[in-house]
Amino acid sequence: MRHLSPRTAISGIGELKPVRRTEGVTTLELLMQVSALALQDAGIGSDQVDGLLVGPQVGETPQHVPAMVSEYFGLQPTMSNMVDLGGASGPGMIWRAAAAIAAGQCETVLCVLGNHRNTPAPRSPNRNPAREFDPPFGASGANTSYALLMQAHMDAFGCTAEDYAIIAAGARSNAQLNPDAIFYGQPADVEEVLASPMVASPLHLFEIVMPVAGGDAVVVTTAENAKEGPHRPVHLLGAGEKITHRVVSQAPNLTSGPLKPAMARALSQSGLGIEQIKFLSLYDCYTIMVATTIEDAGLCGPGQFANWLRDNGGMGPEANQPINTHGGQLGFGQPDLAGGMTHVVEAVRQIRGNAGERQIAGCETALVTGNGATMSEAVALVLGGAQ
Amino acid sequence: MKDLSQLDVPGPTKTPLTAPFWENAAEGKLTIQKCGSCGEHFFYPRPLCPNCWSSDVAWTEVRGFGRLKSYSQIWKPGHPGWLPATPYLVGLVELDEGPTLLSHILVEGHEAKIGDRLEFIPQNIGGQMLPCFKNPDNKEEPA
Ligand SMILES: [Zn+2]
Q1: For a Cys staple, A248 with which of A145, A191, A253, A362, CB 3.0–4.6 Å?
Q2: pTM of the predicted structure, to 2 decimals
Q3: Tell me, what's the ipTM?
């Protein structure tokens, strides 16, 4: 497998503090604000941006999305596109940006995602066949799909409700070190997670992300350019991607997902083994997603995630391999499709060494995962600090 | 069991290609497509076989028996029209012929387990007869 030479690096990050509700703001406004934070962080002006990657469902702009966003931002990019991989869109943008730079089509790519939560909150449009064959039976929404995945995982390996609740409690605990997190000041232990209302068995409310308004932006540029910036460049060392299906009934496997081959490819490209990765920035729309990802990464055998977490010393910055130190989306909130990008942004902070109170000692490498739809769209990235 | 026929919920968004599935099921016949070239049954309906891309596909009646691959008891439905029916059960049913479909499961939550043998039954949901599943009448029905 071809190795990615570290020719590209992340030089800028921006993130909006999530809020439960907004009134009267547009998605374009939020995208521009968070992009400005990322450019400022990279120490560059908008005149240096010649690539643009955006997400789908920019509410005001169902079509011609890159052109509308470019015009609004005052950009005239030589490469632009919309990346539509659900929660994997953010990580999916990073390697696409690197590939476009390697192809000589641009030098500096702005990757941006976000959404408002005005009343009524935006709803993902669901068209056939996803619309036709699930909702008529009472199964609309991601909660049902992940509940079905979790019940299958529980049953296959004999895991208990407490096992999964450890992940939600760990995320809430990490959120106490992030003043921006939506659950900052609201820890929850395993007992409280299990006492939260059942939404779709076996998923309790606290095992499900809270939708918030927000945005995340990342600047990807050449390794040379990144050296000129104010921060330690964070290199893209490897990437992997895989799509297996869309609706949960068509999943080829309920207890292992497309992140398994995606992570294997990313690690192989980086030349690193999973045990050499210090920080695990794992997509966590639901507790079950983290459990399956830990197992698919090869950190432990199927059904062993809870034992592995205990041996790991939990998920906090002091753990052997810390997980989701920003609180994960379970603790930070899920700013729509930007939720997946929060895992990239936190990995960059940790590798730069400026994660503040929650800094991991000696964090040189990170594995970032993104996941979309019903454990069906997967992207994995291996990031490492410039030497 | 609640009266599901009175629910105000979204029904299937049929297309000319998919209509036979819903119409036959409403009449008590569970039909899916089968490929004449590779022999695979598949679901949901498509113009070509997703396995070998042959256009030699035909509707075929299946036995209507399957295995519960997973299930969830829904307390907070995604669509508010389902609230009066909560808690109710949805599940993934793997038909004996191979394909898996998502359906409404007409057994009580605590009675369902993965691996359960299930049988197709048309059920009125929100005024439409939809293909649901229940425990088989004859427990001896061979696998
Ligand atoms: Zn075929």
Answers
A1: A145
A2: 0.96
A3: 0.95
May I ask the CATH class of domain A140-209+238-385? alpha beta
CB contact under 8 A, A133 and B12: yes
Which residues make beta-bridge pairs with A51?
A: A79, A109
Q: Three-class SS of residue A17? A: coil
Domain A8-119+212-233: assigned CATH number: 3.40.47.10
For chain A positions 62-91, those within 8 Å of chain B (CB to CB) are none
Question: What is the rounded CA–CA span in Å between residue A315 and residue A299?
Answer: 14
Rounded to whole angstroms, the Cα distance separating A151 from A146 reads: 8
Residues with Cβ within 8 Å of A236's Cβ and at least 6 positions away in sequence, in order, are: A4, A6, A8, A9, A10, A94, A95, A98, A220, A381, A382, A383
Domain count, chain B: 1
Q: Model confidence over A290-304: pLDDT tens digits? A: 999 999 999 999 999
Residue B9 lies in a domain: no
Among chain A residues, the shortest Cα distance to B86 is held by A138
Domain ranges of chain A: 8-119+212-233, 140-209+238-385
Domain span at B72? 15-134
